[in-house]
Every structure is written in C-alpha cells, then in structure tokens.
Amino acid sequence: MELLKQRIRKDGTVKGNDVLKVDSFLNHQMDVALFEEIGKEFKRLYEGCGVNKILTIEASGIGIACVTAQSFHCPVVFAKKSQSKNIDGAVYATKVQSFTHGKIYDVIVSKKFLGPEDKVLIIDDFLANGAALEGLIDLVRQAGATLVGAGIVVEKAFQPGGDRLRAQGIRVESLARVKSMSEETGVVFVDD
Predict the structure, then answer these.
(1) Where is the binding site for xanthine, in residues?
(2) Disulfide check for 60: which of 6, 83, 125, 178 has CB 3.0–4.6 Å away?
(3) What is the average pLDDT across 38-55?
C-alpha cells in the first residue's frame, strides 16, 4: 500500500535495527483518515470471504480494527491482556509474548463473543516474531471459528513470524513489508 509506505518514510523513526516508531500516526496518535484507507484495503483483500468478526489484541490494534470493521459492517472483538471484573462467564485463554514489551501476557476473549459460526479476520498493527498472531489464532481455534486470515499493517519481513505463519497455510496480508531498517538507511520495503 503505497500511501502507507510513504507515510512510514515521512513520519516513521527507526531505533536500532528492529524498532520502527510510527506512534505519530499509527499506534499512539492515530490518523483516522489513513486508517480508513487501510480498512478499505483489507476489505478489498478479503472481499468475499464472509468475514463476520474482526479480532485484535489490545491495545494498538483496536483503532485499526474498528475502522476496518466499518468496511466489513461487522463487530470487533479484542483480546484482553488481563482478567477484569467486568468479564463474566467462560473465556478462551492463551499466552502471548510481546516483542515490544518483552513480557508474556495471559490473553482472554469471552466465549459469548466468539464461536463456531464466526468467520474471523485478525487485524493487528505489527507482525514481527508472530507471537501475538499465533495467540489470536489459538483463540479462534479454541472457539471453533473459521480463520479467514490476518491483516497486518506493518510486517517486519526480516523477522520470522510472517514466513512461519504462511508456511502453516495461514493467509497473511501485510500492507507494508519491511525488508530491512536502520537509523542510517531508514526503512527498505520488500518490493522497493
């Protein structure tokens, strides 16, 4: 998605060789007009797949998932990283290791919001090692739902997550695939 790549080149900041800060438009301050274009692109990619639920994980993916859900006219379910008093009843649970935070989270979704009748599109802002995506896929499988695929805004293609998931037969569509990045050279995309 050229619009997204241009925005990353313009406003993204590389820290070291593996951190891409896009917090000015993607995951802290959010450019909703850009999100609308991202949502339309995911709709185009997954048109005709029968998506009736979008699943993401808190917190960075929620905004993108919500705007994408407008294109699909379906609800968003977000996996919570902690049990809270307002989640009653049975839950699906899995463990997810966060690349960004270096922590392992117990991630949960209420069983009343995900079930065998659902065709689920997972949406997330980043794909690096694939742990978050694998956790969300586990939740979909526990629910007996159908996984349509995953829509990723930025994939760090130099890390193993995307290739490993695709090798398992999971459809992963990433709008910007980063081949390499450094503070000196900036971001190089796979198709540059």
Answers:
(1) 20, 27, 156
(2) 125
(3) 98
Feature table: binding site:
20, 27, 128-132, 156
Q: What pLDDT digit, counting tens, does each position of 93-131 carry?
A: 999 887 666 788 889 999 999 999 999 999 999 999 999
Place of tokens 């919570």: 80
DSSP class of residue 188?
E
Residue 26 is which amino acid?
L
Binding residue ranges for 5-phospho-alpha-D-ribose 1-diphosphate: 128-132
In a domain, 187, yes or no: no
Q: Residue 40 maps to which CATH number?
A: 3.40.50.2020
Range of the domain at 160: 2-83+90-179
* Model pLDDT, residue 86: 58
Query: What is the average pLDDT across 86-93?
Result: 78
